[in-house]
Specification:
Blueprint (H helix, E strand, L loop, with lengths): L2 H21 L7 H16 L3 H18 L2 H15 L4 H17 L5 H14 L6 H16 L2
Helix pairs in contact: 1-2, 1-3, 1-4, 4-5, 5-6, 6-7
Length: about 150
């Protein structure tokens, strides 16, 4: 077990908690839980226990991929890059995979999927090479808006 891996995992998890606290994305009642989480993460790091740090890191990845709005996930990715100097491509890959799933099924089922596609259109709207993708995205967005 490498100390640098332990440190990266601890830093990632603690920075995630910091991001959530600073972003105001959690209820005040849960602030204590994040503080306790940081204490447990630091304890696992000090004791050289990699399993709980990996588990916490995996939980964060899952939470970001499945439950966090894409705009917030991109902000978190930038936050990690600025603070840790690492690029967490897992978020981007998962976001693109989610976009592909929506395109494949041909229907937007909820506001999160709508936001995901709307953000994608904003990203690629100037790219001539993405004209076909933009048209598909816009058609789905229009259909979803009409169904509201």
């Amino acid at each position: 077990m490498e100390v640098t891996e332990l440190k990266k995992l601890r830093d990632k998890c603690i920075l995630f908690n910091q991001f959530m606290l600073e972003r105001g994305a959690i209820p005040k009642e849960l602030v204590g839980a994040y503080t306790e989480s940081n204490r447990l993460l630091e304890s696992a790091y000090q004791e050289g226990k990699i399993k709980p740090l990996r588990a916490a890191s995996n939980d964060i990845d899952d939470q970001v991929i499945r439950h966090m709005p894409s705009s917030m996930a991109l902000e978190l990715k930038s936050f990690f890059k600025a603070k840790l100097g690492i690029d967490l491509d897992i978020f981007e890959k998962a976001r693109l995979k989610s976009i592909e799933k929506v395109l494949k099924k041909g229907k937007i089922n909820n506001p999160q999927e709508y936001e995901l596609l709307l953000n994608r259109v904003d990203e690629v709207h100037l790219a001539v090479s993405k004209a076909e993708e933009i048209e598909r995205l816009n058609n789905l967005l229009i259909t979803y808006d009409k169904g509201k």
